[in-house]
Specification:
The structure is a single chain. The chain is mainly beta. The chain has one domain. The protein is built from two helices and eight strands; from the N terminus they run H-E-H-E-E-E-E-E-E-E. An eight-stranded antiparallel barrel has the order 1-2-3-4-5-6-7-8. A hairpin with an 8-residue loop joins strand 7 and strand 8. It is globular.
Length: about 150
Amino acid sequence: MKKFLFVALLSLSNVATAENIPKAFQGKWVGTWQSHIKSNEVKAYCQLNDFDHVLTLSINKNTMQMNYWEASETVSNFKFSQVKPNYFLGTAKFVQSGFLTDDDGNLIDKDIVLNRKVEFMLKKGELIELYRDDQNDTGKSIWYKRYWKKCN
């Protein structure tokens, strides 16, 4: 019985372990909200720190950091259901900063923590992200694609 419990606990501990992001996805990426960046614009966008015009995405082996406008997101604790050389799908913990406002529309310093679906694919040198927008005028979640180009 003790051996059975030990094996059961060991297998459960493997389920709770976060997974690493595939190496091909790691690095610094730039993008805009929903359009493609032209190849000749990538270098300028990679050097730009003006988050009104460009989004940045830094991916290492176990976290992602997205920066845009006054907001940012840190994504961690990845649990993948599918991993291929050019694709991954799963869930992760999102910590969003700079999304909440007070009654006057001023940003407040409070984080939003969510567990969400993550889906990324590499296609023709571009990183394509499927993301959910919960803060829109419809009151419903809307799924969009965001396109990223890798900085050298």
